[in-house]
Amino acid sequence: xxxxxxxxxxxxxxxxxxxxxxxxxxxxxxWIRWFEELREPIWDMIGDIVVDIVHVGSTSxxxxxxxxxxxxxxxxxxxxxxTEIINRLGKLGYKHQGDLGIKEREAFKQTRKPVxxxxxxxxxRDSIAYKNHILxxxxxxxxxxxxxRYEQLKIxxxxxxxxxxxxxxxxxxxxxxxxxxxxxxxxxxxxxxxxNLS
Length: 198
Fold this sequence. Notes:
globular; 5-stranded mixed β-sheet; Beta Polymerase, domain 2; about 15% strand
């Protein structure tokens, strides 16, 4: 291999690693505004057939370092109107992606350039997926030591995880610990573990 080939191969590997890295930023109070700006057109479009639209994930927790991506749960009481939800969200540029391996958590991807980076899900209000999101937020908000441990892990993984999937998988055990402390039963914890690590 000559010097030119070596330099190009090294550059490709370096750039690939940079592109796959996970960015964890200090808490930004603007994330609350981002959520509201994302929520408003969705609520206007489907508010009559859903229960709520909820800001979840680390960007919803005051003071928490996070990936600068807003996680949003559209909460439904039943799946009766789901086809209508898909159709209406399509008018806003969202495409249904299926549950991506997480039961009763239907993912949507924005096909247009989003006003802010975000993940959008439709969850049943009684689902394990929605319970996971809400109880984790509750535990981290109410327990400073859990908040500290979780934030430190996220910052560490942001430096070492090669991609978002690895980053998420390596948070699984601490999340399960916190959910257990909130009273989530063992069988549901095992389901969450299985889905997160699959």
